[in-house]
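Exercise 3.2. Students should predict the tertiary structure of the chain below and write it as structure tokens, then compare their answer with the key that follows.

Predict this chain's 3D structure.
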Amino acid sequence: MKLTDIIFEYTDAYKSIEDSLAKDIENKTNSGDCFVSMGDYAGGRPDDDPLKDMSYGKVTFQTRSDFEEPHWDKIKSYVESRGYDITQDSRFFDDEPGERYYYPTIKFHFKTPSK
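Answer key:
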């Protein structure tokens, strides 16, 4: 079991949404390979927590180049048009030789659907 599965309650309830969003981003923004992951935060949250009843998601583009700003803005606009609140993004690719790669990424929150 992955550490993220332990920390966050992994569920495949979002699998069809993840696949649909990834395919739509690739087709509508001509952005190449992207991967989408979505999930729910583990445990209950107090009523005053801004993340109460919220879920998270991340779009990662597996490319070894940066996105041009106008193209990146188009991708972000599309993600927002699907009703997701972008919390963090980086359009740059970077690597630490011998360590790891940093891919262009968009992180977002959304209202947890009723289950």
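Discussion points: The first helix runs from residue 3 to 7. The two ends are 24 Å apart (CA to CA).
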